[in-house]
Structures are given as C-alpha cells and as structure tokens.
Please model this.
Amino acid sequence: IKVLNQLVEVGRLGRKTGAGFRQFVGPKAKPAADPAFEPILEECRLAQREIPEEEIRDRLFLAMLLEAIRLLEEEVVVSPAHVDMGMILGTGFPTFRGGLLRWCDTEGAGNIIKRSEKLMPLGQRFEVPDSLHQMAKTGEKYYPIPDDVVESLREK
Model:
C-alpha cells in the first residue's frame, strides 16, 4: 500500500498520466519497464529478515482466530462449536486441538492478546476484539469446564 500511496503522491496514476508501475509511451503502446519506478519501489521496500516459525504460525492462526471471534461478536454464527466444527471439517484444522476457539481456551485469552498485539503493525486483521479483552479480564472461556468435572479431577 505504501508503494501505491507513493505513486499517487508523485502523480504516477497509470495510463492516464503515462506512468505508474510501468511507462506508457503512447495511447496504444504496450507498457514498458520504467527505470524511474525503481527508486520509488526501493524506498518502500521492507528490510528482509528471517521470520521465526512461531511468528509464521501466529500470523496464520491468530488472523483466523480473531476473525472467528468477530463472527461470534457479530452473531454471524451462534456458538463456538459451529466455528470449530467448520474449521475442522472445512479446513482440516487438527481435530485433537478441538478447533480455533478451543485452541484459544488452551492458549489463554491473555496470551492470545499479547501475541496479537505484536502483530498489529501488520494490519487491522490482528486487532483484538473487545470480547477477547473481556474474557482475559474475567477468565471466561469458550468452553467452560463444569464445576463438578473440576471437582472430580481434583479428587483424583
């Protein structure tokens, strides 16, 4: 997006101005490589770096998870189970993880928030929904364990 903004700023709007990503010499001419575009591209290029596996996983899973939470907030789906079943059957999400929202319970809302906030510079898809902040404060989960089950586990 930075490249597009830069092109607009310098008046390179494509065919109508004769230049954009490429150069347009005449009304019917085919676009040609434009050496004047290279410095604009270079200015916008991000420094290359090694991306750790954990960050790659977070970029993929957190984007899906946060969108799933938004679906619940907006009442597009009626229950966490519907989201999780859709992920398991539709995308092949690992069954043993129980789905995205079960995975969120396992990881903990506070942990998910911290990891998402690190990725927020990458775009609004990593903005944390209000309901997840609320869950972190209250300790609420998508799949709460009933008290009698907790008690029976303590007894063992």
Observations:
- The two ends are 57 Å apart (CA to CA).
- The helical segments are 2-9, 37-44, 53-73, 80-91, 100-107, 109-119, 130-138, 147-155.
